[in-house]
Amino acid sequence: MNINTTKIISLLFFIFSAFYLYTAYQIQVFAFDENAPFNARTFPIYLGYAGLFFSGLKLILPDPNTIKVDHKNLEYKKTGILILIAIIYGATILKVGYFLTTSLFLFASYYFLGERRWILMFLLSFPFVAAFMYLLHGILDIYLRDPFLKSIGVMG
Amino acid sequence: MIEGILIGLTTALTIQNILMVMVGCFFGTIIGMLPGLGPMTAIALMIPITYGFDPATGLILMAGVYYGAVFGGSTSSILLNAPGVPGTVATSFDGYPMAQQGKAGKALAIAAWSSFAGGTLSAIYLLFMAPSLSKVSLSFRSPDYFALMILGLTAIAAFSSKGQFLKAMMMVVLGLMLASVGQDSLSDITRFTFDNMNLTDGISFVLVVMATFAMSEALTIILKRNDPTSAAKQVSLTELGSIKINKEERTKMYKTIPRSSVIGFLIGVLPGAGATIASFLAYGMERNVVSDEEKEKFGKGSVNGLSAPETANNAACSGSFVPMLTLGIPGSGTTAVMLGALLGFGVQPGPRLYMTNPEIFWSIIMSMYIGMVILLILNLPLIPYIARILAVPKNYLIPLILFFSVTGIYVMSFNNFDIYLMIGIAVVATFLRLYDFPMPPLILAFVLGGLMEENLRRSLLLSNGSWEFLWDRTLTACILATTILIVIWHIYKTFKKKI
Question: How large is the ipTM?
């Protein structure tokens, strides 16, 4: 059996399924439901076994379509930075508000992806977000929480 | 039916809904032209916008995006040999050679008219078939539904990724596992929440779609250093030439379109199949039925070879609405996203939809006609101009996709946890995509998870815990036998390759 990344993913999925199955058996059901033909843990238990079955098959069966990924050509740095910016965006959006965080997120993302046309970057962040907010909040009546705009009296 | 058509027309022909069809078709055409970003991403990005609409309008918008994406995919397929969506791969076989012969405008015109005819004919089939199927499906019982869902999930796993059946089945199981998080629908017992209050209501469907499609596709583009907008830049520079179709070409199309639309529609109806298989089958069948002289032209710019897959892929789009509207079981990943959105609106698709919400049922069907006309107007004269809009550098496109994804979750829950969870799922999905683990089976399984458990529960309770319900009824047994055949066939194929 050749060890490749697909097999390692299958092994991880096998372990995950085993953990899922163990957790499924731990689901607390009502006493009167314990021996019922179907209770809250029945379906998850079947799923756990299905996960073990398919990932087990993938592990032991030959892999004729082995996928080879050239890691040297992958852009890990920019992807990592983008994920980090998205996490910071997620962490601040509730406290700071939609407008400021979204605009800064867009501006920072453009910058880290290599964009340097400052005027275009600005236009596609602050005014763009303002217009989008107007579409959602003003026209479509979708509530957008924004403590920052509220504090300066722009939003009610 | 006349009454239904009138209800549908009344709803679909409001200014707001016509505008939504136009916006949907326009946006779908743009996304469809970008290789790598398919209709599922386009529809997922539309979800936050639909929060402000009624269900009929929301679904009309999403349906417009769907046909638009398939329609737009054919443009990059013909002009650049770079299909925007998998359903338009077969279009490039004869469309691209035709464009290379200096007949790009003609190829686009043939594709546009074929798509229009295929979509319109299949909308007529849908018009007649959907109500009858709804009536038939009212006689379906829980075991039949359970078996149908198993078949749908197996079929999508079999067809979604060539030679990767087990990977797709693992994704199906993962989708069902994700759907099982949160409160059990009957007993309210919490499962797999690990005492986290944010998971009590389960994982949101929008979150999973945004993470596995919009966000993970954006991350994959950056990770693989792809530039989907480069294709669009070339489209805008291409000299199209005349868009006139002569009498001889029209005669060929008159014969091809009806048979390809039937194939496309029927394949679209089958769970898991869809536009890609429909277009390949129609192409293959057309090659077999034409004269030997015409057969020689296939692959070198044949009118029949271009018209057949284009008719079939659009017909399949309409066909894929049949299982969703009549059974409440989506036949493809794209209709699964739409089903999830409908459930979000509080509408339960299924055999009773056309009785309980006739305006939704009929307006979707009617909007297809309007959509086809709009696409015909859009695709032909406006393609070079649309392509210029697309020539936005990926440095802007990617952050905008991420922004739409996060906004979709933010306006839904106002919760940091959901944003982190979405980023986490997107990172895992990006890694899995690298190794060819398909995402559509995961989405379909996630949408069907709750319904599947519900139908299994009912079936087991009615049969006192016995699994005999699987073969008690002929219909259930036939559906399950088909499923087992698909599984055995694919596992056998894996073994055979090694031997």
Answer: 0.93
